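Researcher: We're teaching a course module on how sequence relates to structure. For the next exercise, students receive a sequence and then see the predicted structure as tokens, so they can try to spot secondary structure elements on their own. Here is the exercise chain.
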Amino acid sequence: MAETYKKIVPQHVVIIPDGNRRWAKKHGLAPVNGHKKGLDAAMQVVRGSRSLGVRVLTLWGFSTENWQRSKGEVGYLMRIYTVFFKKHLKELIREEVRFKWLGRRDRVPAKLREVLEKVEKAT
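Model: And here is the predicted structure for the students to work with:
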């Protein structure tokens, strides 16, 4: 019976990342390091999900509550998201990953909005 469960792969997985700042604090690092590590983990999840045969992966990236964080932290998050998607665009295309941006486009800085729209269109 255990073998049967090993063969079952969900069609849709939803992940709401939480704890980047706590992880950084636990390791004596600044919160920004936790966010960077979280993005690295997100890409590992994308790769792993694809290799396991998960058809749809939803990753929550930024909530309305996150806008309440310090201006510096929010700005940093917007910048690392921009860098992240620029860095991984070719891989997403090569691996036939479809990126769909859900959420309010009007609140995101223009530079990030342009990158996300480019990724969305390209994939």
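Model: If you want an answer key for the exercise: The chain has a mean pLDDT of 92. The two ends are 39 Å apart (CA to CA).
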